[in-house]
Request: fold
Amino acid sequence: MCEACAVVAEERRKQRHRDYKAKRTDTDNQKFYSSKPWLITRAGIKDRDNGLCQLCWSENKVKPMNTVHHIIPLEENNRLALVRSNLISLCEKCHQKVHKLYDVRTEKFNIQKKLRSLIG
Reply:
């Protein structure tokens, strides 16, 4: 992708994210993800994982992370929201893939087990 196309693609991605945030109804989660404790924890996880997607890294691919994922989702156990052993760095593609697998109970268990094994 040329530099001009990359700039356009990044602007589109940012706009999609703004649109997504504006339409969300889970205000408690939105507040959490903007909170100082979360931002500090997220930065620590990014640092721990060297800014890389850990699923890609496990497959010998180097791809920057852009999401810190809760292995056990907040909706299931919000006490684990800031627990480092419940957090892992993922790229957008892997994050989407993981959430699709979470929709299938047996796959959810397997991918959670794999994610836990990738944490330092």
Q: What stands out?
A: The chain has a mean pLDDT of 91. The two ends are 34 Å apart (CA to CA). Strands lie at 67-70, 87-90. The chain is about 60% helix and 5% strand.
